Amino acid sequence: MNTTHTSYVSNIPFLTCSYLFIYSSQNFKYLNQKSIREMLETPQFLHILAAEAEHLVTISVFIPPEAKADFERKLLDAFSSDSFTESAQAWNAERSRVVQEVLDQHLIPAGVKWAREYIREEVEDYLAAKCSDQLHSVSNPQWIDTYFNADFSTAG
C-alpha cells in the first residue's frame, strides 16, 4: 500500500462514499455513507466499480456540508482583505464568489476523481498483497529449491 497517501486520507474523515444498489449476485444491497478508510481493506469497492460499469449502481463521493463550509471559510480567510472600506468589501464579495466557483467547479470534482482512483488503487494493492501472502504461505520454498536444483541429466 502507498503509505504516503494512506496517512493523508486517514486524516480526512469526512470523505464518504454513498451508493444504492439492489442486485442479488453482489455482496451488497444498500450502502450509504461508508467512509473511505473503511473501504480500503475490502474488495467491496471493486465490486461496486464493476456494478457501476454495468450501469447498475451510481457511486457518489462527497464531503459533508459542514466540512465543505469549514474549508471554504479557511480559503476565504486566506484571500480576504481585512480592510473595511467599501472597495475592499466589494472585492471580498467577489473573492467569495470566486472561492465558491473554484470549489464547486474545480476542487471538489478533482477531489472526487482523485478519491475514487485512490480507493481503487489502494484496494488493488491491498488485495495483491493478500494474494501474495497467501501464495507465499502455501508454497514450500524447500520443495521448489529441490525441484529446480535437481540434476535431470542423469535420469535414464
What does this structure look like?
Strands 2-1-3 form a three-stranded antiparallel β-sheet. By secondary structure, the protein is mostly helical. It contains six helices and three strands; from the N terminus they run αββααβααα. The relative contact order is 0.13. The protein has one domain (3-137). Residues 1-25 have low confidence and may be disordered.
Radius of gyration: 25 Å
The tally of helices reads: 6
Q: How many β-strands, per DSSP? A: 3
Strand content: 5-15%
Cα separation of the termini: 49 Å
Can you tell me the residue ranges where pLDDT is under 50 for at least 5 consecutive residues?
1-25
Helix/strand/pairing category: mainly alpha
Rough shape?
elongated
> Major β-sheet, in short?
3 strands, antiparallel
Whole-number mean pLDDT: 77
Tell me the domain tally.
1
Q: Which strands sit side by side, in order, in the main sheet? A: 2-1-3
Helical proportion, percent range: 55-70%
Q: What is the string of helix and strand elements?
A: HEEHHEHHH
SSE topology sketch:
Layout: H1 3-10, E1 16-20, E2 30-35, H2 36-39, H3 44-53, E3 58-62, H4 65-79, H5 86-138, H6 141-148
Antiparallel strand pairs: 1-2, 1-3
Helix pairs in contact: 4-5
